Amino acid sequence: MSRQGRGAPTLRKAIPMTDFPLATEKLRLGYGSSIIIPELDLRVAGGRVTSIIGPNGCGKSTLLRALARLLPVGSGQIHLYGQALHALPSREVARRLAILPQGPTAPEGLSVEELVWFGRHPHQGRFPVRREEDREAVTWALDQTGMRIFAGRPLESLSGGQRQRAWIAMSLAQQTDILLLDEPTTYLDPSHQLEVLHLAQRLNREQGKTVVMVLHDLNQAVRYSDDLIAMKGGEVVAQGEAGTVLTPELLREVFDLKAHILADPDTGKPHVIPYALTR
Amino acid sequence: MIHTSRYTGRRALFIGVLLLGAALLLGILALGLGAVKTPTGDVVQVLLGRGDELTRQLVLELRAPRIVVALLTGAMFAASGAMMQGVIRNPLASPDIIGVGAGAGLAATLFLLAWPGAPPGGLPWAALAGAWAGFALVLLLSREWGGHTGNALHPVRLALVGVAVAAALGAAQQLVLVRAPDGLGAALSFLTGTVYGADAVRAARVLPWALVLLPAALLCARTLDVLNLGEDLATSLGTRVGAARLFCLAVAVALAGAAVTGAGILGFVGLLAPHLARLLVGARHARLLPVAMLLGAVLVLAADTLGRALLPPTEVPAGIFTTLVGAPYFLYLLRRTR
Amino acid sequence: MHKNILVLSAFTLLSVAAGLTVGHERGTLDLKTPARRVVALEYSFLDTLVALGVKPVGAALGLQGGDRGAPPYLAPRVKAIPATGSRAQPSLELIAASRPDLILADAFVHQDTYPQLARIAPTAAFQSRRGSLDDLNAQTLAIGQLVGREAAAKRLLADQRALINKARAFAKKGAPSFVAAVVTPRSLTVHTRESFVGSFLEDLGRKNQLPVKDGQTQYEVALEGLVALNPQTLVLFTAPDETPITDAWKKNPLWQKIAAVQRGRVYQFNRDNWTRGRGPLALRLMVAETIQSRLLQDAAPGADFRD
């Protein structure tokens, strides 16, 4: 049933767990007695942009949130560079992994710069002393996201896209190797969506960050990701390079869609044009 | 540039200094006000270590400790409310909502009315125990049993359980009050909240709590800021949310409990002061907490001074004024937050 | 019965030479000379002082905490006395300003204020609000000693005993028991044998129908409860300025079933005098009213005491 491994490095079983930023082992997730993900073994490749796709309720957000220890684990294990995620102090995890959940909210009146400073929280001690390296990290995060000119503005005065960039800036200030984004383009208009995705891609290309996103739009997922993970019913149906995972059969199996797949004129990657439901 | 955040550190500092000045001024004013007229000159003489014995007694033994207790309890209620609002992420949260007020009230009523042979001076300790018991009850009931979320305190559940427990304890308290033969006056004035009868002993009893807990509250400022971003973000930033919430709530309950021993249940100070502070300096707790403390102190001192000076020799309990201002504001908030 | 008086007297005997020493609920009080400037924080103390011919320099006459003020019998006699706050919240400032050499406080109501009062002036705490008749008589003597009028206090107590004995002579032998109740516009509270008025009326020779219930010396009953008790004699304490709840009950056919109503033995007294009145003057009034009302005789109530 699972076609795991298609298009992925062939020697993956031989690569030690410590080389993967995130990996799961017999992971079982759920809320109370309802099980969302029964058993999952997954490895996320380092230094790449990975997007998790799948229909609503397939468990993609649940998985992402669990990877960021926002959800308790039913059974099994999550590994952060080979270390048991839940055994690590939360603060240490926060220095290595940042997540931007869906629809974050901030108290009224908070300025962009104040928000970005929160990203330094896991690096600061009991007393909020602002060291030089903290200052540099905040400036860097503002620069990376193009939010420096908005630094003094209250969050609620910004557009949706600017606000999302401010939140990403906060996550960047955490200076982690791994950045998880849960549907970062939701509620944004198309240009702001691209803005956020470009940013994610650039962070990966220039900083070497491992980026894992949950995305709804298949074409965006293909275009801005190196790897795709396709999920259905709490299981990974396919995982591999973005260019090879999306096939008409997969679309039918995962999304119940009949689609044409064309080559993107820019990137040569697949471009999906759905035309009918299989149901 | 028009959009620059209104809430700056400089603004907070300015407001803080302003409030500190107001507290100082009001404190000096309050030294000269009371049922017995004391000319300003005489009060100044007393402050300079001279003056006649009656004025000394009035100013130093009767008024000064009251002012101290009013300032301290006001600051403590305000800090408690600010912390609870931060943890529960609900602007309507206050010591009353988390079982503290109701627990203290029931314990005080039981102590006064159902235990005739109670030792004198035991009331504040009964109230303190009641405050913690009320909080423990709310905590116990809002825990998710057998769930996978471990011991994370869920803010909404906490608030709802708090309201229910407050109502239940309030009803029990009414039951005791109805059966009370006499001594109702003392119980009622405690339940309304009053600084009446505060002496040096009481001031000395509240002071150590304040000296430990108010700075502890300030140390929680950053944790509260992070908690304010919500459970997901707080976790993402490396905070152990359940433990952090519990710790902050414990400090908040200790503050309110200790304040209750000083002035009874001063209504709405814990709601009003943090709110006004948030309007003035924004939601960052490093600014919000000190400004709320100062506001609470000024509020209670103003209420008590007004209560002493309005209809002498009758002393209108400070709690009546704070409730008079606080209750409409609470309703306004309720309408606004829907 | 007079154990308290004996104890207090013993204290006085011990200290004839060096001023006076009087025991009270919070210890003992040593005064070099009898007190001249007294502040009274309960009506019974005020009553006693007035009866002893001492004019207090201050009294808790303020209306606060639901206080209805000095009872009517006492009010005209205390008009000239400065009010120093209310009983629930005495004004410490005014008390201090009146420069007292003695403060009389209630052991229960002022239990938490006591330390502050004691810092202003020597303060004696007595069980007035929760005291029995014996307690109050003991206090009359103690207050007499504190203000240097022990002989007058003893005379008051002797007169009171004589008056009570006289009243007892009126009491009809074998008369049925009574139920006594305080009635407000919202409730009716019966007073048992152990309550102050309940025990006082028994002392005068009529039997109280109700024993203490679950440790409560007084408790609320509804009309049905009252009908179930079916008292042969009903003594009601009402306030002239209020419409008691019994006025509404009278329209109910159940009310007519009560034996006391059928026998025409419902007596009415002023509750302001009877429930807040304590001390020698109050007792004199209460004994007189009991006789005038013809309650003791088990005869139809006199004009002023008709329901």
Automatic annotation (TrEMBL), chain B:
Would I find Membrane among this entry's keywords? yes
Keyword Cell membrane assigned: yes
Recorded GO CC terms: plasma membrane
For the biological process aspect of GO, one term held by this record is:
siderophore-iron import into cell
Transmembrane spans: 12-36, 67-88, 97-116, 122-142, 154-177, 244-276, 288-310, 316-334
One of the entry's Gene Ontology molecular-function terms is: transmembrane transporter activity
What is the name of the protein in this document?
Transport system permease
Organism of provenance? Deinococcus phoenicis
TrEMBL record, chain C:
Coiled-coil boundaries:
none
PROSITE patterns, alphabetized: FE_B12_PBP
Q: Which family does it belong to?
A: Belongs to the bacterial solute-binding protein 8 family.
What is the native source organism of this protein?
A: Deinococcus phoenicis
Q: Subcellular localization, per the record?
A: Cell envelope
User: What Pfam families does the annotation carry?
Assistant: Peripla_BP_2 (PF01497)
GO CC terms, sorted: outer membrane-bounded periplasmic space
The organism's superkingdom is given as Bacteria
- What are the BP-aspect GO terms? iron coordination entity transport
- The residue ranges of the Fe/B12 periplasmic-binding domain are 37-299
What SUPFAM superfamilies does the entry give?
Helical backbone' metal receptor
Q: Which UniProt keywords apply?
A: Signal, Transport
User: Do you know which InterPro entries this protein is assigned to?
Assistant: ABC_transptr_periplasmic_BD, Bact_iron-sidero_bind
> Signal as a keyword?
yes
State the protein's name: Periplasmic binding protein
Major localization listed first in the record, in broad terms = other
